């Protein structure tokens, strides 16, 4: 049976940004905003939440599969994050929907991590920021040869949210600090080595597997997962170059402070260290310090506490320093004016003090009225 569910559209005549249907025993979701690389709008977050909640208690749905679309059709791009143009506009103008966006997006991330049925994410192409938030909680995280995965937030004066503290802190060694601070983009090999993907599905196998999920008869939810797992490349074919790069990251990113990390990288005589130091010098100095603290705090937190901490932090990113939000400035430079020359404040890693960092971790809400108080 095919059942097409309701979908969001920004205007009545516009194409729906989230497509969903049930085919056979599986619920299928396609992110359908390819011109913005499927960046998540508030409407998309709401649609995803509504669809997942409906299917969670629908006995006809054994499992859920999600993918993105590119301009040519399905797959090719998963999701480039939260809609940063909206964040810029809403953050500059005090639009209350900004608060709703983060509360509802983080609640969606939490639901996916705790989803009662296998949720299978086809993470082809760009998977960044909010795209990680709707895939890292999946029962199966499938990357491809063309996956470009990153938590790029320090480039826009933000921090890796959407549960980034939780899942990056659980990467091996200091890989989480490396990915969080630099925002470096990784492919399938490092994604698997970092524990951020479960397996690699060849690009040309995605469509046949997706289609077959809707026509096969499955005994139960575990059989749906097993059907997909049987079609993944052996990990030994994917992992070859990853170990050496992780060892390099460990050598620097275990150091206690951002200053020591960047100084050690600048003193080293390898291309990797030089390039990594140069990357850090471009990121928001303030947010580098905030992010290192975030990842290290998150290492001893469960997901719900991490999301509450991130909800506090993201509010501060916009409102702690009125008229001086690093995030508004970072998005302006990357995606609004596109001059790629953010004016960070302070301008240098060395000029950030602990007194600037500490307030990001103070909750603006009493515990009982925290916007994510209900998350367990
Ligand atoms: C709460 C959640 C927070 C977060 O998720 S924060 C993290 C947000 N994500 C990012 O910071 C990534 C921003 N995007 C990029 O850096 C680049 O894109 C990519 C590296 C992903 C791809 O670059 P390229 O292949 O050159 O494509 P392109 O021309 O930059 O993007 C195509 C169109 O997509 C729009 N777009 C991309 N990402 C987003 C986004 N996250 N929010 C809103 N729009 C986005 C662009 O602006 C552009 O649009 P136009 O053609 O009209 O200029």
From TrEMBL:
Transmembrane segments: none annotated. It is an enzyme of class 4 (lyase). The keyword Secreted does not apply. Its EC number is 4.2.1.17. One of its GO terms (biological process) is L-valine catabolic process. Residues 26-361 form the Enoyl-CoA hydratase/isomerase domain. SUPFAM superfamilies: ClpP/crotonase. Keywords: Hydrolase, Lyase. Pfam families: ECH_2. One of its GO terms (molecular function) is enoyl-CoA hydratase activity. This is Enoyl-CoA hydratase. The lineage of its organism: Bacteria, Pseudomonadati, Pseudomonadota, Betaproteobacteria, Burkholderiales.
